[in-house]
Specification:
single chain, mainly alpha, rod-shaped
Length: 185
């Protein structure tokens, strides 16, 4: 204590050194808080991007499931056509196919990740509408015209091809936004 009392400028030096240390501490704390804020912001952005990616995958998978149900219905009716005519069950199948066609028409296909996927879903809807027309004609007229036979010939393999293309894309889709969209074609 006597040594400190003997040096009168020591207090001002201690105050100056303390001020410099306090300044460095304040700068360090501000820098650390800025880094933490950046990390938190990056985490939030990455989390939001991951949520959006998972949402795109879920939306695509739900759309594919609906399209698959409709395509399987078209395929089933096409394969059962001789039996449907013999049994006279065309009105029953027509109503089920009409409901399926309405269901697929309500899908948000333009929000899908790829233009080719939207095309496949639209094709399946088209096949469902064609099959509906064939069943409608059989229900009302009781016979199958040449035009409906041609439609059935097309409907024999086309829905399966569209469904295969659609499901293979959905199985490989990782949720990215880099896929082809309709405006890019």
């Amino acid at each position: 204590m006597n040594w400190m009392d003997g040096h009168s400028g020591l207090a001002s030096w201690a105050q100056a050194i303390g001020s410099v240390v306090a300044l460095f501490v304040a700068i360090g704390v501000a820098w650390w808080q800025g880094r933490q804020s950046q990390k938190l912001f990056r985490y939030q952005v990455n989390h939001a991007a991951e949520e959006a990616r998972l949402q795109r995958i879920a939306s695509l998978r739900a759309t594919v499931e609906v399209a698959e149900i409709v395509a399987r219905r078209v395929i089933e009716v096409a394969r059962k056509m001789p039996d449907i005519m013999i049994e006279g069950s065309a009105p029953l199948h027509r109503e089920a196919l009409e409901a399926a066609a309405l269901w697929i028409a309500r899908l948000p296909i333009y929000e899908l990740p790829g233009a080719l996927v939207a095309r496949d879903v639209q094709n399946i809807a088209l096949y469902a509408n064609r099959m509906h027309k064939v069943l409608d004609q059989i229900s009302t007229q009781g016979y199958q015209s040449d035009e409906s036979r041609k439609s059935l010939w097309v409907l024999n393999g086309a829905p399966e091809k569209a469904l295969l293309s659609l499901t293979s894309f959905a199985d490989e889709y990782s949720g990215g936004v880099e896929v082809i969209r309709a405006p890019d074609l």
